[in-house]
Amino acid sequence: MELTEITLRMVMDSGLLTPGTLIYSSTDPVQTAVVNSDGTIKISGEKVFYSPSGAAKSITDSSINGWRFWKVLLDDVYVELSFFREQYRSRIAGDRT
Q1: Rounded to whole angstroms, how far apart are CA atoms 83 and 87?
Q2: Distance between the two ends of the chain, CA-based, in angstroms?
Q3: How far is it, in rounded angstroms, from Cα 64 to Cα 69?
Q4: Contact at 8 Å (CB) between 33 and 51?
Q5: Distances in whole angstroms, Cα of residue 71 to Cα of each of 6, 7, 27, 77, 97
Q6: What is the C-alpha separation between 83 and 97, in angstroms, rounded?
Q7: How high is the pLDDT of residue 45?
Q8: What CA–CA distances, in Å, run from 59 to 31, 80, 84?
Q9: What does the pLDDT profile of the chain (97 residues) look like in tens digits?
Q10: I need a surface site. Which of 6, 38, 69, 77 has the fewest CB within 10 A?
């Protein structure tokens, strides 16, 4: 499976991220958003986006890879959202063997 085919919803459904996970902007860690159970991202409790890139663009006002822009605080280290997408792909590849 190609990375571009993997959605945040798929990552959520696999259990790699849980609903309510707080994600942090890579440009300003004070700027946060919440990942919803349906794979959408809510910023500032109001705006809902259907992709990490859409949510990132609303902050940067330019096209940007949201999987790399958003970070999750994991064991006191900020990890790119893309890490979880890679984990999902690895898990799926392992299921096929």
Answers
A1: 6
A2: 13
A3: 7
A4: no
A5: 17, 16, 10, 9, 30
A6: 22
A7: 72
A8: 9, 17, 22
A9: 677 789 999 999 999 999 999 999 999 888 999 999 999 999 987 899 999 999 999 999 999 999 999 999 999 999 999 999 999 999 887 766 5
A10: 77
Instruction: Give this prediction's pTM.
Output: 0.89
Please give the biggest Cα pair distance in the chain. Answer: 42
The token pair that represents 62 in the structure block: 């330019």
C-alpha gyration radius of the chain: 13
- Of the CA atoms within 13 Å of residue 31, those in its CB half-sphere come to 13
